[in-house]
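Aim 2 progress update. The chain analyzed this quarter is reproduced below.
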Amino acid sequence: MLKELIIAFQAYFRAHQFIRRHRLWKWILIPGIIYAILFLTGMWLFWGSTGQFLDWLFKNLGVLSWLEKMHNDVLNFLFIFSTLIFRLILLFFYFSLFKYMFLIIGSPVFAWLSEQTENIIEGKATQFDIVQLLKDMWRGIRVALRNTLWQSVYTITILLFSLLPLIGWIAPMVAFMVECYYYGFSMLDYSAERHKLSPAQSAAFIGSRKGLAIGNGMVFYLMHLLPIIGWVLAPAYAVIAATLSLYHQNDEP
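Predicted C-alpha cells:
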C-alpha cells in the first residue's frame, strides 16, 4: 500500500505538469471557483450550526449543569476535548455529503477531464462522444450516491465510537481515512467505467488498490489547507491525478 500511496501523491505533481502542458486551465478554474464558493459558505454555516446544536443538546441533557456541580478539572477537560472530537467528525460527515453533492453536479466536467486525460496519454484523437459522456455522468452519480450511503453508515458508527473516553480520540483519524478512500474511489471509477468494468468489478479493482484511492483523497483534503487556491484546484486535480496514477500500474483496469 505504501508504494500506491507514493504513486498517488506523485500523480498530483504530474497532474499539474499535465494541465500546464495541455492547457486545460479553463476546465480547472471554472468548476474550481464554484466549488470554492460553495465550500467556504457551507463550512461557515455548518461550523456555527453545530456549535449551537451541541450547546442545545448538552443543556437539555443536563450535562453542563452536572459538570458545574462536579467542579472537576479533569472532567471538564475530557468534556471539552470530546466535544471538539465530536464536532470534527460531524465536520467530516458534512464534508462527505457536500463533496458528493458537488461530484454529482460536476460529473459532466469530471467525466470529460478523465476521458480527455486518458486520450492524451494514449495518443488518441480527441473526440466529443456525448453517449460516452452521458454514461460516465450517470455512472459517476450512481457511485457518488452509493458511496454516500456506505460512508454515512461508517461515519455514524465512528460518531458513536468517538463518545468513548480516550479510545474515541482516534475516531477523527479513522473518519479521515474513510473520507479519503471513498473520495479517491469516486475519482478512480471514471477510468474503470470506460474500461467496461461493472460497479462490482470496479469496487473489487479499486479495493485491491486501496493505496491509490486513499492517497488521492488524502492529497485532495490536504490541498484544502491552502486557502482559496487549494480549494479551487483540488477537485479537478484529483480526477486528473487519479487517471494518471493508474498508468503507473502494471495491470491497468
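The mean pLDDT is 80. DSSP finds ten helices and no strands in the chain. These observations will guide the mutagenesis experiments scheduled for the next reporting period.
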